[in-house]
Amino acid sequence: MFSGSREFSPLPSSPSSSRDSSSSSSSLPAAPRRSPRALQRHGSLLAQYSALLESYTEGEIRQLISALVERYRQAMNSGGHELPLFPRAGSRRKRARARHKPCELRELEVSVSELGLGYESDETVLFRYCSGTCEAAVRSYDLSLKSMRSRRKIRKEKVRARPCCRPLAYDDDVSFLDTYNRYYTVNELSAKECGCV
């Protein structure tokens, strides 16, 4: 990554000695100037990093490497399995993937009491529900409605300017016994098919 070794000439101690040295030995190479740390916009990523690292002194590179090694050690001691150089970027990607999952049917096994319908029962049911985003299902209606809301043509009514992931069909009715041995049947409890409405 680094080509050749850098040679540094001693700096002149006084202005008079600099004049003497420049006139007497013009063949001596001038002290190398440090290139700016700004990356060029064009070029490959490798070339950009090479240019960036070449602008650092040897001491700065050693500091960088020791900081990375220490960070790696801390990650290994805390149970990590990979070098967490950019931990936030990974979590951002996970959140972005979670936000843009398509509308789909999911299921969860819960007790009847956990459904929140007012029944007390220890029986468990398979509750199917719809989850996901409907970005791809935006229609002209949704775009126009959003425009009308932003222009304050529609103010007081509660309207949604984008489609929502909802059940298109429901599963069979669910029957169960409560804690007092009373028999109940609940309809339209679990989703059977989901879609963007």
Automatic annotation (TrEMBL):
PROSITE patterns: TGF_BETA_2. One of its GO terms (biological process) is glial cell-derived neurotrophic factor receptor signaling pathway. Residues 1-39 are annotated as: Disordered. Its main location: secreted. Residues 92-197 form the TGF-beta family profile domain. Transmembrane segments: none annotated. GO terms for cellular component: extracellular region. Residues 9-33 have a biased composition (Low complexity). It is found in: Secreted. GO terms for molecular function: glial cell-derived neurotrophic factor receptor binding; growth factor activity; receptor tyrosine kinase binding. Keywords: Disulfide bond, Growth factor, Secreted, Signal. It comes from the Eukaryota. Belongs to the TGF-beta family. GDNF subfamily. Homodimer; disulfide-linked. Interacts with GFRA2 coreceptor and RET: forms a 2:2:2 ternary complex composed of NRTN ligand, GFRA2 and RET receptor. Also forms a 4:4:4 tetrameric complex composed of 4 copies of NRTN ligand, GFRA2 and RET receptor, which prevents endocytosis of RET. This is Neurturin.
